[in-house]
Recover the amino acids of this structure.
């Protein structure tokens, strides 16, 4: 993990800090920074506010239900997925800071239109994760990952997208829950901001988040148990205290990865989506979901593995590649690595 640069010291009980001010202060810790990364983060915060508005009024406006199109994973998209996707593209494509983008909802790379300037960063995102939960009012989220451009041209190629997660320069997520929160890291700690709906501003509410070493919560969909192999079944039994070798964790599964991850980040725990006989690589996407959350988790003191490899070390070969994942409190994730490596 990179060294953590010195930080801005403030009294969080009395200071009111907007995300804009915080981003500027963080940039000042890196002399020579061009400001491009900060600009991308501002634009993402703006997109998040726009999506939050749509999500909040989803039950009122005629935006519920399926848009009727299937995405590249063969899943039917909800209308809000498309709206969130479009919102992010439109907020980011003209800033001159990106060479390209990729979205979980789009088959191919999203190019920067020829009329706009480009920059040296590549953005990957899942515009609305957990969108099947929208019509039952369960939290959903946006996840993003920012990579440096690897190739030399002014427009991105697939090579720019297919970099291991350890090369991310920033990652974050937005959770649209009882309040809207944006949590991100640029490699110097993890910081959370809560949207003040009256001011329309994200305010620093959770500076320097650290995940507890041991977790209280286990988030896994146990309905797949019959399709797991024996080591995964044994691991989940161990987490649940059923083999008598550790205290039982509390099972909590929203079915919306951002919500499950966020709870475990703050309270300690592990989120697992193992491979199973019906989904040999699991369900979740390396580039849009697993890499960004693994980056944040490591920055907060946690860990993430696919069972045998650190998530951030996996070299992707496809844009929509899936991977099994165990992410969360370090001791609990290390237990997964040990038990699954022994298989
Ligand atoms: P999505 O990107 O199509 O919304 O799917 C991802 C979601 C995650 O948020 C969640 O953890 C997982 O799917 C739940 O899947 P399952 O119902 O198989 O447990
Ligand atoms: Mg998703």
């Amino acid at each position: 993990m990179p060294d953590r640069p010195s930080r801005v010291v403030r009294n969080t009980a009395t200071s009111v800090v907007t995300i804009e001010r915080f981003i500027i202060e963080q940039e000042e810790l890196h002399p020579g920074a061009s400001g491009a990364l900060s600009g991308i983060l501002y634009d993402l915060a703006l997109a998040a506010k726009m999506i939050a508005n749509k999500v909040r009024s989803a039950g009122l406006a005629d935006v519920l239900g399926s848009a009727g199109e299937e995405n590249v994973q063969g899943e039917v998209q909800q209308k809000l997925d498309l709206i969130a996707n479009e919102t992010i593209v439109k907020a980011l494509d003209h800033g001159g800071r990106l060479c390209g983008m990729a979205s979980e909802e789009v088959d191919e790379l999203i190019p920067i239109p020829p009329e706009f300037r480009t920059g040296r960063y590549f953005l990957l995102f899942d515009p609305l994760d957990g969108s099947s939960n929208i019509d039952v009012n369960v939290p959903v989220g946006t996840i993003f990952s920012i990579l440096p451009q690897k190739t030399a041209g002014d427009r991105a190629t697939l090579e720019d997208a297919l970099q291991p997660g350890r090369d991310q320069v920033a990652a974050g997520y937005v959770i649209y829950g009882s309040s809207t929160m944006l949590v991100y890291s640029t490699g110097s700690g993890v910081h959370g901001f809560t949207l003040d709906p009256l001011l329309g501003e994200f305010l620093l509410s959770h500076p320097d988040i650290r995940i507890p070493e041991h977790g209280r919560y286990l988030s896994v969909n146990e309905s797949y148990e019959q399709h797991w192999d024996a080591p995964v079944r044994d691991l989940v039994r161990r987490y649940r205290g059923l083999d008598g070798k550790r205290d039982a964790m509390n099972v909590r599964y929203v079915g919306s990865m951002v919500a499950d991850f966020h709870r475990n980040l703050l309270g300690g725990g592990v989120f697992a989506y193992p491979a199973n006989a019906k989904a040999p690589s699991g369900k979740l996407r390396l580039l849009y979901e697993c890499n960004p959350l693994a980056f944040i988790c490591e920055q907060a003191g946690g860990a993430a593995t696919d069972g045998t490899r650190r998530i951030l070390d996996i070299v992707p070969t496809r844009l929509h590649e899936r991977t099994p994942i165990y992410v969360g409190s370090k001791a609990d994730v290390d237990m997964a690595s040990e038990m699954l490596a022994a298989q």
Summary: The CA atoms of residues 51 and 83 lie 8 Å apart. The chain has a mean pLDDT of 92. The first strand starts at residue 66 and ends at 70. The chain is about 30% helix and 20% strand.
